[in-house]
Hints:
Layout: H1 5-11, E1 22-30, H2 37-45, E2 51-53, H3 69-76, E3 77-79, H4 96-101, H5 104-119, E4 133-138, H6 142-147, H7 156-161, H8 166-175, E5 181-184, H9 190-203, E6 210-216, H10 222-229, E7 254-262, H11 263-268, E8 275-284, H12 296-310, E9 317-321, H13 328-342, E10 350-353, H14 356-359, H15 366-380, E11 382-383, E12 403-405, E13 410-411, E14 418-424, E15 429-437, E16 455-461, H16 464-479, H17 487-496, E17 502-508, H18 511-522, E18 540-544, H19 556-561, H20 563-580, H21 584-590, H22 604-621, E19 628-631, H23 635-642, H24 648-664, E20 669-674, H25 679-687, E21 691-698, E22 701-707, H26 708-720, E23 725-727, H27 743-750, E24 762-764, E25 769-770, H28 779-787, H29 792-803, E26 807-811, H30 818-822, E27 831-833, H31 843-855, E28 889-890, E29 905-906, H32 923-928, H33 930-943, H34 964-977, H35 986-989, H36 996-1012
Parallel strand pairs: 4-5, 4-6, 9-10, 9-14, 10-12, 18-19, 18-26, 19-24, 26-27
Antiparallel strand pairs: 1-7, 1-8, 2-3, 6-7, 8-15, 11-13, 14-15, 16-17, 20-22, 20-23, 21-22, 24-25, 28-29
Amino acid sequence: MTDGPDRQRAAMTDGAAYGDGVAIVGIDCAFPLARDTDAYWEVLLRGGDAIGEVPPERWDPAAFPAADGAARAGLDRGGFLDGADVFDNEFFSVPPREAAAMDPQQRLLLHCAWRAVEDSGVAPGALAGSGTGVYVGVMGGEWGRLHLGDYDRVTPQLGAGSSAGMTANRISYQLGFTGPSMAVDTACSSSLVAVHLGVGALLSGECDTVLAGGVNLVMSPALGLVYHQLGLAAADGRCKPFSLHADGIGRSEGVGLVVLRRLADAVADGQRIYAVIRGTAVNQDGRSNGITAPNRWSQEQVVATACKRARVEPREVAFVEAHGTGTALGDTIECAALGSLHAEGRDEPLAIGSVKGNLGHTEGAAGIAGLIKVALALHHRIVPASRFADRENPQLRLSQRGLRLLKSPLRLPPTPVVAGLSSFGMGGTNAHAVLGSAPRPAPRTTARRAGPGAGVFTLTADTPAALIRNLTEQAEAVARRPRTSAAALCRQSNRVKTGLPYRFSTAARDTEELAAALREAARGGLPEQVAHRPWSLPTVAFLFSGQGAQYPGMTAALHQDSHTYRQALDAADAALRPYTDTSVRDRLLSAGSGDEDAVAGELTQPALFAVEYALAATLTALGIRPAAVLGHSVGEFAAAVTAGVLTLDEAAHLVATRGRLMHALPAGGAMLSVQAGPDAVRQLLAEEPDAHLAALNGPRDTVLSGTAEALARIAETLREAQIRVRDLQAPLAFHSPLIRPALDRLRSAAAGTEPKPPEIPVFSTRYGRLLDPAERMDAAYWADQAESPVLFADALADLETVCAPTHLIEIGPRPQLLPLAGRAGLGPGVEFLHPSPGPEAGATDLADLVARLYRAGLDPDWERLYDPTSTAGSPEKLRGYSFSTAHRYWTAPARPGAEPAERPRPTAAPPRPASAAPRASDPVSRDRDPVLAAVVDAVAEVGSYPLEQVVATARFYEDLGFDSVMIMQLKDRIEARLPHLGEVSVQQLLPALRSVGTLAQFLGGHLTEGVGA
Length: 1013
């Protein structure tokens, strides 16, 4: 069999399996001079040079006096990450001992993975337990070579920490992914091969989400010396791809991961799409002119196969990110392979470049460095110029081959664009990917009736200090934005920046307001919004306002701003219209334009009901589901609907009938508010048969009802007694015998309802207590309720006793009941909230209520807070999580002929904030509880924790990151410290391993039993 072009074409697979392709929906990376994706793009645009001197913690170039020329350059210079030794081990609950033993490549990948998932528009915790796959390209195993040679210092942590295979496994373990997890080593093509495997897993249905990429750290000069001996090392430590001055490789490092999803899934979930992988291919040089030498025919084949799978003709490719190492042989062969495929049928030469001119050769991360560059170029519609392109190598014959170097940035058209990417391994494993620009998202528009709206910006972190740190980062990022609506940015924060223990949230209408709030919170100016760690869900009760809370144009601003509220008010209006012969909604909203009587008279109660139903429906749609409801007078109708007792139509019929019947009653009644308890008016009521008790709203809040003359006499007497009274300007004497003429017809209308048992506890103001399951809100109830006194104070007291609410939310157009509740002597800590606290209230007040409940532990249905039309389009990009830089872990410098490297040790770490629990390291505590002291010492030794960090409340698995190996080590050390304990089996210890304190209690009891025996 031959191995020529005919066989290569026969081997090409059909592109049908790729469908519409695989979307790149999330990116994170760190390269020299670039701490994140935005900084990386900036380096590319300005043609940055990332090559610098070797950091002192890596090795001492002076220790290699024999090296000269290119070897000296490889020892002195390279591309090095800033802070490669930083690891926020506490965030991932990794003990210091394990963190110090871990290959720093694993540590970099953990930070990168978290931020990449965030960038995909998903909170990383939301993927825990999913079949997300992880594919990581990693080259070599320098960490293991540096540390496993000293056999006396080998530990289980060092063994796991030195394994290249653990680079992917560590991500899956820490983030809780259960899909395929594998490390790939094909030398310099490792990370693009990892992407290829991840794409295949998605297309086969094995995964729905994939993290793929690579990592590379230059921990010793060994490979640089190998490059020198192979004649591949650049004299100045820089790659100069396709340049006249190209003279070899300069080593560099970095980490990068992309989040991949099937394109259809990404579009359906509204994720940002940077670019689409339309086809990939991997092959091998086979037996050629040397295992480390490139093979033109294999390179040509892998490119052709990828194009075939992508259903793309090579002439359609606009630009290629080449492997481009800057070696004479490598550049020549690559250009020949690209030219033979791409030159034919083109109007313009194929643009090529290589990021290695900026970064150097990132080896195992080279493929992902190129992939991210291509994805960003397609996303931003501009291809950065290629560094060193000003003096191209004439021996490459680029123009004759239909190729050109990018001497200046290439602007891409707004139409679909196709690009290519190559990555070739030293051992002959070649990879190529064909990418296309993302489908255009729907433009973000504003609905005709929608206002600018408001949102809730959320942020979470693992500690209060981390929350402040991330607030500062987000404030800086938001402040750089132009002033626009904050809704889309807030919505993205709800999707991404949730799930960690300490919560921040704030309502905001625009980015300027949001940036100011974030800055103030970061400075500690908003303490009630910072560092909330809720330990339980809030218990919420709804209080529905009674008549008297209404006003012209009530909730008009909220109606303009809130899509969800508009829908709910529309539903209430539709239910009322058959019984009111008009649109209550339209009349209500027109009242704000000067028509003061639009909802007066018989429409007052239906309008109030419509507003209360819509507010309650809005809150429940947002995920704020009450533990109890309580309605004041006419407010009981909306409360009954919320509790599932009445349907919306039944309640609409009843309340419209009630309003019409009450309006038809003869005038002459009045109502009087008295700032005193019922005892103060009891004798006066006995002397005035036309005056009656209408409501008991609190210990010093009583309402009387009756004829105007009778109430006037009572008011005069009370004023003489220095008791404050106020005429309520009521049109009728509600909740008195004066409304009896209307009750028969109200009872008749209510007879047509079919009240159901409450789905939510109802605290009846008719009875002043929790409604018994056997009691029905039937026709008799509603008739009696209209005449009987409103026992609000009693019902509220029973609600507090039975439900112990943490939050009372008034459902009405302005505060009426919350001031009464504030004077009712409720227990401490109850928070009062209102979604629409007055005529000026709008979306910001609703958003603020949601923000407060989120800080209290509620996880709302965020999508219902936003108008879909105002947040349509590509999701906003947020700054990634800012990890702590307090902890640094590195190895001792490598020296020729030196003893085996000293075991890695963590640098000194500042203690965490003092715990409320007594510290076992305190001498008094040690004297009082020697068993606890022994446990603390053993835990600190096993995990290399500072003593002050090992408090009694620390949990072994969640806080200290213990695993089964560490538990065995802990058992041995405890037995050594407590010789009288005897041998305790692991099975005996396991139930006690909830926290340090519970283990000490168990061991103390075990010792006592032993002494007693």
